[in-house]
Write a structure and sequence with these properties.
With about 240 residues, the protein is of the alpha+beta class. It has one domain (about 30-230). Helices cover about 35% and strands about 35% of the residues. It has four helices and twelve strands; from the N terminus they run αβααββββββββαβββ. The chain has helices spanning about 1-25, 35-60, 70-95, 175-185; strands at about 30, 100-105, 110-115, 120-125, 130, 135-140, 145-155, 155-165, 170-175, 190-200, 205-220, 225-230. Strand 3 and strand 4 (about 120-125) form a beta hairpin. Helix 2 runs antiparallel to helix 3. The chain is elongated.
Length: about 240
């Protein structure tokens, strides 16, 4: 009996150590493997949180009370801003936004392969709905070669969308055998873009900002996860 207890205890220790090792080996940046629709919902949730928090900050810091001295007003607004930042940082930590990476699928359309140049012309029809800009809260994408944010009015409604801004097509340098393999599985060929989200306050305008930052872009087979191409996305200038 004593021997059995010892064996069971040893197995429990081994199992605990195995779980701890597995947790330690998990990457800090998890790929959420998102459809455009799911990423859109995440953006809307974060935008709603930031809008409500920013509206409350503006309400608390908007005007000086007639019985309030200038120094008292500055002290009050400073405290309100600090409270805002503390809550925002807490939200970012709770949502794990400081270490979370969002992998989003954009459908790839293989247009034409140039066998002489070894270049495939590719485009993507995918659009991701994003929250539109209002005076107190907005989404921005830092300027880069591949990912843009459009703003338009359709049917009387304002709409913002994230898109791949190839001009007019993405030129994919690829060997002919790889191009043939990709063409044979075109229905599951996708671009995958990894994003991080930065939530912040623009103090100069009392405006909440969600920076949607693309980090890299892959050309890959969605079904078997085979990666044909990976390119880091370099920001050129701030929007």
């Amino acid at each position: 009996m004593k021997k059995n207890i010892t064996v069971i205890f040893s197995l429990l220790v081994l199992l605990t150590a195995t779980v701890q090792l597995a947790e330690a080996q998990q990457p800090a940046f998890q790929d959420d493997d998102l459809t455009p629709e799911l990423f859109s919902l995440i953006l809307k949730d974060e935008w709603t949180y930031l809008r409500e928090a920013t509206d409350q900050l503006i309400k608390e810091t908007g005007n000086r009370n007639e019985f309030e001295t200038t120094s008292e007003f500055h002290a009050r607004t400073s405290k309100a801003r600090q409270t805002f930042m503390d809550k925002l940082n807490g939200h970012i930590k709770d949502a794990k936004l400081e270490r979370r990476v969002f992998g989003v699928w954009f459908k790839a359309t293989l247009l034409q392969y140039d066998a002489d140049a070894g270049v495939y012309s590719v485009k993507s029809p995918t659009r991701v709905e994003a929250p539109y800009e209002i005076p107190t809260t907005s989404c921005v994408i830092p300027k880069n070669p591949y990912v843009g944010l459009s703003d338009s009015i359709q049917g009387g409604y304002r709409q913002s969308r994230i898109y791949l801004k190839f001009d007019p097509d993405f030129k994919w340098t690829v060997a002919r055998n790889e191009a043939i393999k990709a063409k044979s599985t075109e229905s599951v060929m996708y671009f995958k873009v990894h994003f991080v989200l930065n939530l912040m306050l623009d103090n100069s305008q009392n405006r909440g900002l969600i920076k949607i930052v693309p980090k890299d872009m892959l050309v890959m087979n969605q079904a078997n996860k085979f990666i044909y191409l990976k390119e880091n996305i370099i920001q050129t200038t701030e929007e």
